[in-house]
Amino acid sequence: MKILITGNTGYIGPVLVRHLRKALPDAELIGFDSGFFTHCLTAVQYMPEFDLNAQYWGDIRNFPDELLKGVDAVVHLCAVSNDPMGNRFESVTRDINFEASRNLALSAKKQGVKAFVFASSCSMYGYAEGGPRKESDPLNPLTAYARSKVAVEKELEKLGSTDFAVTSLRFSTACGMSRRLRLDLVLNDFVACAVAAGEITVLSDGTPWRPLIDVKDMSRAIDWGISRKPDMGGAFLAVNVGCSEWNYQVKDLAEAVAKSVPGTKVSINTNAQPDKRSYQVDFSQFAELAPDYQPQVTLQQSIEELREGLEQMGFADKNFRESQFMRLKMLDTHIAENVLNEQLFWKNRHHFNSIISSSNMISKPGQNGPGFEKSQESSGFFHNVIAGKTEDVWNDI
Ligand SMILES: NC(=O)c1ccc[n+]([C@@H]2O[C@H](COP(=O)([O-])OP(=O)(O)OC[C@H]3O[C@@H](n4cnc5c(N)ncnc54)[C@H](O)[C@@H]3O)[C@@H](O)[C@H]2O)c1
Q1: What is the rounded distance in angstroms from the CA atom of residue 208 to the CA atom of residue 68?
Q2: What spacing in Å lies between the alpha carbon of 354 and ligand 1's midpoint?
Q3: What is the CATH number of the domain that holds 233?
Q4: Considering its fold, how many domains does the chain have in total?
Q5: DSSP 3-state assignment of 264?
Q6: Is residue 270 part of a domain?
Q7: Is 393 helix (H, G, I), strand (E, B) or coil?
Q8: Domain coverage including residue 67
Q9: Distance 262 CA to ligand 1 centre (A)
Q10: Quick one: CA dihedral 114, 293, 326, 152, positive or negative?
Q11: Calpha distance 247→267 (Å, rounded)
Q12: What's the confidence (pLDDT) of residue 391?
């Protein structure tokens, strides 16, 4: 089986690739990414992309369709991936998250791909009172990011067919450790606060409801989406992914982290304006359709793995909300350094190359073996990590 994963060099991608490499050892795994966050690594010995058969670099808005040849399943992670970035880059968010996603799905169907798994989000429920939201409940997207996910789902619904199973996984908010960490996620932020400062500052009044899911359990759900046939849930399926016990109020998450990291104080901003994004989610459809792929990680385990991961990194940055582990901060840094433009296109491929090489992780010691062989070169602009080195096959940007 050949699987293309877009947006694989972000936060979820490295965890997913590790999971798929183990669960589907014979699968050919290829990645496609623009590399905005590729150098934002944690304590790792080698680039997570060495677990792939090939890595392509390029922009999804100029996706070279030939990469879909022979592909059985597409996992589409690539996106402007949260509300702050969506607010800052509103029209680009529409271009990348909506237009390019629809075009990718159309091309995938045309090229005979059998399964298309889309990383959607429960944030499309927005502010929802009156109990946990089911898939059939009205949507209330409050941000450009959430609206883009709703818009893609509408298009994908038209494309699902007996030979093209489309699964839109409406994920809860992610948490947990990854070889490319994000600290702009509620639980990850709290653990980083506890480790670096011994104090969790909750920016809201702590009352909003937020369903959470560990990145390992997201990977398990994606694995299910890849294998899902249209007769299990329909040619197009939108499904909430998570479990009901993981519907938490933000203040409860802060208390759980404080318990796990002894000596941590919790300060809640009681004067904060009410956070409009608050919802609980009903996961019964996912439990019914995917009994063997249900979340397994406990909240305690997620917190522990984050704490251990941060400690291994020697993490002590009290000012981490200004660091490279905040996605928006990273994009703004690229723009301030004049290597990325406001439309989120790299200005020059040499800039991109130097960012990738600055991670110092291109070569995996002693690794030149099977799985890293040169994949077919083709036209279009992309760049390939192969056999422990990068090969420059860019055309014009
Ligand atoms: N993290 C969460 O809480 C969460 C929850 C629900 C859904 N999701 C969805 O899961 C997916 C992955 O999330 P993540 O947390 O790994 O995000 P991320 O921001 O860490 O990774 C996204 C990746 O997409 C790439 N990308 C962005 N624009 C691109 C473009 N124009 N061309 C090529 N590549 C591009 C980036 O370089 C990055 O590597 C996203 O679609 C996100 O919306 C995430």
Answers
A1: 41
A2: 22
A3: 3.40.50.720
A4: 1
A5: coil
A6: no
A7: coil
A8: 2-180+213-248+278-296+338-391
A9: 33
A10: positive
A11: 21
A12: 39
**Looking at the domain assignment, is residue 357 inside a domain?**
yes
Which tokens hold the place of 302? 């997620």
Residue nearest to atom 28 of ligand 1 (CA): 79
Q: Say if residues 27 and 3 touch (Cβ distance below 8 Å).
A: yes
Burial of 192 from C-beta contacts in 10 A (0-12 / 13-18 / 19+): buried
Q: Check if the beta carbon of residue 105 is closer than 8 Å to that of residue 116.
A: yes
Two tokens at 298? Answer: 């406990």
pLDDT for 72-126, tens place per residue?
Answer: 999 999 999 999 999 999 999 999 999 999 999 999 999 999 999 999 999 999 8
Do the beta carbons of residue 149 and residue 141 sit within 8 Å? yes
**φ and ψ of 283, to 5 deg:** -110, 20
Q: Whose Cα sits closest to atom 27 in ligand 1? A: 79
Asked whether residue 314 is assigned to any structural domain, the reply reads: no
* One-letter identity of residue 209: W
Binning pLDDT at 50, 70 and 90, where does residue 335 land? very high
The CA 7 to ligand 1 mean position distance, Å, reads 6
Structure token digits, residue 113? 């791909």
Stretch among 249-253, 266-270, 341-345 having the lowest mean pLDDT:
266-270
Structure tokens at 390: 């990068």
- Average pLDDT value over all residues in the chain: 88
**Which one of 38, 78, 98 would you pick to mutate in the ligand 1 pocket, going by the greatest count of ligand atoms within 8 A of its CB?**
78
Q: Write down the pLDDT at residue 383.
A: 44
Both structure tokens of 148: 């883009």
For residue 272, tell me if it sits in a domain.
Answer: no
Place of tokens 């990645």: 31
Please give the distance, rounded to the nearest whole angstrom, from the Cα atom of residue 330 to the centre of ligand 1: 13
